[in-house]
Amino acid sequence: SKNKVFVSYIHYFRGIAILIIIAYHCMPSSNWQGNSHVKALLDDILCNGSVYFVFVAGFLFQHLLPRYKFAGYMKKKVKNVLSPYLIVSIPAIAHSVFIKGVESLPYGANIASKPALLKVIWFYATGMSLCQFWFIPMIFVLYLAFPLLRFLDKDEKVYYALPALFLMSALIHRPEYNLGVMRSVIYYFPVYLFGMWASRYRETLLQMIGRFAALLIVGWLVLLLVNLVGAEVHGTLHWAKPF
After folding, report:
1. Which residues are within 8 A (CB) of 38 and not within 5 positions of it... i.e. 6 or more apart?
2. What's the whole-model pTM score?
3. pLDDT of residue 184
């Protein structure tokens, strides 16, 4: 059925995103000693794989929107996302707060003088207990935006703002250490909305991709080459302050 075809290709894409993220996070542990140009190429190809996950999240949100009401949607997210996050974070938070000390963290000076309870709350709110957990508070804010996103999807004109939103995202950059939930939300919101747009017009979009696949691949290769040769920084740009 058409629904089975949909489930297949979006989950294949999610699988590719998982492989890309794993590959990129393995690189810092490899103590790279090889060709610097190859390292730059891998950084440009593999970095910022979170974009793919956010795109998939937006795609599935729009696709499944008719099936959900806010209460049922949030109940599922609390069960499958928030609860595991709260539990799995406990050892890392306990280690940082009561054993190692937050002073040893590059961003620890901001909370070093705070009471232990506030430190625990801060770690949960920011996802900084482990560097990979920053994604959970960010994506959960987008889950909470369910009513707003449902309202926006009712009028297709909202998607006309995507080019301007992507420009804003390119200028604001990801925050340093991924420390800044709302800034990360602003950075990734255009990707989530783009996923919703792709779901809304998926039939037309798939036809266009099939028709122009070769051109799209060549365009991607050209942009990759331009970035590889001309960029001073390869991979994701992280800045302490936006713009």
Report:
1. none
2. 0.88
3. 94
